[in-house]
Every structure is written in C-alpha cells, then in structure tokens.
Amino acid sequence: MKIFVLTTLSLTLISCVFQKSKLPKPSSDRSSLDAPVPDQAMARKYNAKLARIGLGHAIYMRKCGECHLHVLPDEIKSNNWHLIVPGMSWNAGISPNEETALLDYLRIAAKEAPKS
Length: 116
What we know:
5 helices
C-alpha cells in the first residue's frame, strides 16, 4: 500500500512539473486578480448561467495556481482551453462537473479580457 501511495504522489508531482512547462509564461505585470469576475452582464452576453461561470471562476482562483502560476484566461485562445483543461483537471483532482464549469468560465473570460 505504501508503494502505491508513494508512486501515485510521485506521478502527480511529476505531472505538475511537466504541465507547468507546457503553459505559456504568465505576464509579469498581471496576476490572477486581473481575471474577469463573472457578473450578470457577462452571463447574459454569453447566454450562460451566472452560478455556473461563478463556480468556474471560484475553481480557477482556488485550484489553478496550486501547481503553476495562474495563466490568465486571455493568455490562451478561447477555443484552445478545451485542450488544456482536462489534463489539468485530473492533476488538480476536480470533478467532471467542476471541470466543465471551469472550462465554461475560461472560454468566456478569455473573450472578456480588455483589448490592449
């Protein structure tokens, strides 16, 4: 049993390291606090439920910085998040429901970022 636990922990740590290396380098002048916070206007604009994207935002704030620095939603194209989130969700130990809420939030938030 100890070998199983140690192996699992080792693989999780290794996967965090490999996942970190695949992410874009976050902007040094921005932080997770710059991520759009869902509100009713955002939900209405994208025909989404505020509770759903609010859950996604909460998961983003709580879990996405555990293994790596937060990557702001707009630092990856909205239509590419579906390629990244499943592996990260597994590493973070979030449920399938939480994964889809996170993906919904990231896709919408990526479109909401201020244009520079």
